[in-house]
Amino acid sequence: MSTAVHVTRVLEPVVENTVLLALAGELDYDNATRFDHDTHEAIAEHHGDVVIDLTDLSFCDSTGMQILLKVRRAVHDRGGRLILVNPHSRVARLLHLTGLIQAFEVRPTLAEAAEALHAT
């Protein structure tokens, strides 16, 4: 059994009008439904950019990637950008192996994510 993934909405966003979520644990089939619910609840009323800090997400399987794609679509449909920050080496490897690295904007640090959002 996996360690549940925890979604935390950080109250101090990196940029004004941006939702910052921090993920911790493992994201897989066993907890994907809960992750989907928690993430969409955190961004439900938001119509701006979303930054997801993956620093403490130690594992993600294809089910988790599907949900991240759903989040990306929801954010883009509202006119926002989704930036993933500092994926763990295992998560980064999955992004590269699946080709999904092209679907996501990925930054190594929160500061670089903030800089990218300021540049637009």
Automatic annotation (TrEMBL):
Cited CDD domains: STAS_anti-anti-sigma_factors
SUPFAM superfamilies assigned: SpoIIaa-like (SSF52091)
Top-level taxon of origin: Bacteria
Listed PROSITE patterns: STAS
One annotated GO molecular function: anti-sigma factor antagonist activity
Every STAS domain range: 16-117
Family annotation (NCBIfam families): ant_ant_sig
Family to which the UniProt record says this protein belongs: Belongs to the anti-sigma-factor antagonist family.
Protein name: Anti-sigma factor antagonist
